[in-house]
Amino acid sequence: MIGSLRGRIFAKVPPQLTVEVGGIGYELEAPMSTFFHLPGLGAEVHLLTHLVVREDAHVLYGFGTEAERRLFRSLIKVSGVGPKIALALLSGISVADFYQCVHNEDISALTRVPGIGRKTAERLIVEMRDRLAAPEASPGAAAAGGAASAEAEAYDALVALGYRPAEATRLLKEAGPGTHSTEELIRRALQSAGRE
To answer: In the chain, what are the domains?
Structure first.
């Protein structure tokens, strides 16, 4: 898995760009939110990535922030939402605004994003509600400090271990208040789960 790239921008035509790393050009697709903050051609850039493997192609997606990549990864797990729709969502609405739409069940705001119909918007709200109950989902969390990112990383780890999003959120709340490292939060959450 390719987790990130650091190199020079060789070409960019939204939504595609090419980043040259050590003489190899990596073609990526990126949301407009990332494109708006890219430097000019020839400048160095660092992007977080996600690789989607299909029968007919391997497509690398690039993101300027961890919040964008995390939301993209959550979106493509929703039934009927593929990478193209996830990219359109990230291009048409900010991460914080998306969280707000799900929290407020604002279907009309989601349907204003090109390619998102009413049924898809309803499915997104229903399926993302539990996932966005996680600590990183609170509005403004992207601007928060290390505690929020430690909680977000711990949440992702618990989900990867097979806990449902709501369970992972509950276990992290039971881990106790205060600033803890990602490892400490995971350890406390697993201890809490073990006592049940």
So the answer is: 4-63 (2.40.50.140), 66-132 (1.10.150.20), 142-195 (1.10.8.10)
Q: Would you say 79 and 119 are in contact if contact means Cβ atoms under 8 Å apart?
A: no
Greatest extent of the chain over all pairs of C-alpha atoms, in Å: 55
DSSP-derived 3-state class of residue 67:
helix
Among 92-96, 110-114, 115-119, 180-184, whose mean pLDDT is lowest? 180-184
Q: Over 90: is that where the pLDDT of 196 sits?
A: no
pLDDT over threshold 60, residue 78: yes
The upper half-sphere exposure of residue 145, i.e. CA atoms within 13 Å in the direction of its Cβ, equals 5
Kindly state the helix (H) or strand (E) to which residue 118 belongs, with its residue range: helix 118-131
CB count within 10 Å of CB 126 equals 12
